[in-house]
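Reopening this one. Same input as before:
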Amino acid sequence: MGLLSTTQILSYLARALVMLIVIPVHEAAHAFVSAKLGDTTAKDAGRLTLNPLAHFDPIGALCMIVAGFGWAKPVGVNPARFKNPKAGMAISAAAGPVSNLLLAFVATIVYKLVLFFYPALPGGVFSDLLYLFTLYMVLMNVSLAVFNLIPLPPLDGSRMLLVFLPRRLYFKVMQYERYIFFAMAALLLLGVFDRPLAVVNNWVLNLLLKLTGFVDLLLRAASGVSV
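Same output, byte for byte:
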């Protein structure tokens, strides 16, 4: 069995570095918004921090590095502390994916800048790692956001269902959260979600490329290329 190539090593390193950012941002966003809405459960548990150690789930983190999607330790939430439990649950749940999409938007701008100046960068490991880091900063943020919007527990999308389902039915479904999670994990391993996730991910990526089209225009103008 051959050793990993330099490109493969840099790829995994870049993913690991990105993971140290995207997961803490995602989880801290949950804690921050929950606290603002009146529920300090996550904040009191030390989750309002960008320290990766406060958020990592070992298996979820490994999936992020290897597969590009994964999860962290669930953030505690007490709906009774929200002034409006339904809205509070949905908004605090949406905060994680939204934070990753915003980060993906910024990362797309940086990626385009790095890609534009890449030929002028000194060759070598650092330049390649910088390119891969910015690339995965876009891809993994989008992947984490889209994956967590799946409406199955314990993902964020399941908490957002409270807006659409009667409260009694919602919490009845949540009683089976553990079993639903294991079923979802099995479906993931079987690749059932691969195609739908890829379609949504590509749609979001194309949207980000269009929304950051102004960067392309500015770079073309700066380089004297006619638009």
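So the earlier flakiness isn't reproducible anymore. For the record, The chain has a mean pLDDT of 87.
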